[in-house]
């Protein structure tokens, strides 16, 4: 597999930028104090409240500087991401000071979809988002959970500002990497991953999945996950304060933290998706190679394959252990092959699990979404084990316990 280059106008512009950067002109700055100052200047706010986020932010910055091999576009993207997270924390703290009821808002029976990446979590998330009463995380919310302007609950102008930001992100990704967009389109008006909310904590699996940052990867998997999950819950309260409903979230990250997820959300309902690792590992490796290309000048396909396989193997092993202690009836298993073969039947089963009535229009909503979102809507995703130096027998051995525990069948070629 070869990674397609950026479109030629972008290559010309980025080449000129790199030349200027080599002369010290226009190089995005990742200095902690200047990042914080930029967020304070952009928001006009100063108080973060609890500043325990600074340690993970420093860990992240160190790995980005020393290990990630960021090119100038990658530095710019990561700088913008960090500043946006800091802005969110400042705006959220202001809202909490003005509206103490946010912290008291209940998060009742939230629904979380999780499983290894590329196991149908996105399709299932978008199907379920059509269900009345379920309040999904939209791209607009994911990129900017807190209002960008006035600290108010409802403001149509404010919402349009946030939507315009999400739309620019969608168009930028589609232009720079149409192959990545074909794998996982980030659309302004579609549901998006909970992992964006973890970006605000600076303890985010999105970074270590898409970049080679070994010290950061090791650190975020050794620390107590409860603090980032507690902040994640507060962000959900913020979102529900703005638009009520039964929260519907999704990210593969939850799979390796099911125990903490259920501690922080004791009445949660979890939908756990499964698929043949021989398909999953190279598919997500391809996605992460394309993502890495947007950020780093060093994308080694075989290294990406090893990193993805390691992270997925660790994730499913932790999930197996956590599932042994999960409350009865809190988790429903859904297999990718069943979802692809009979989306309506699986959705009916999921509605029953969630205690949601399968009403007259439920089947029509599912069929309408499926008809509007055919597989390969934005292009065909081509990948193979050999592209990433992955051996099928070795993968079978590493995921043997997972296959047997959840009854995961082998998919055809």
Your description of this structure?
Helices cover 57% and strands 6% of the residues. The protein has helices at residues 8-22, 32-43, 54-66, 72-98, 121-128, 139-143, 156-176, 178-183, 195-199, 205-210, 214-220, 226-242, 258-264, 277-295, 301-323, 336-341, 343-354, 362-372, 392-398, 400-406; strands at 111-115, 134-136, 246-250, 269-274, 331-335. It has a five-stranded parallel beta sheet with strand order 2-3-1-4-5. Helix 12 (226-242) crosses helix 13 and helix 14 (277-295) crosses helix 15. The longest helix is centred in the N-terminal third of the chain and has 27 residues, at 72-98.
Q: How are the SSEs ordered, and which strands pair?
A:
Layout: H1 8-22, H2 32-43, H3 54-66, H4 72-98, E1 111-115, H5 121-128, E2 134-136, H6 139-143, H7 156-176, H8 178-183, H9 195-199, H10 205-210, H11 214-220, H12 226-242, E3 246-250, H13 258-264, E4 269-274, H14 277-295, H15 301-323, E5 331-335, H16 336-341, H17 343-354, H18 362-372, H19 392-398, H20 400-406
Parallel strand pairs: 1-3, 1-4, 2-3, 4-5
Helix pairs in contact: 2-4, 3-11, 12-13, 14-15, 17-18
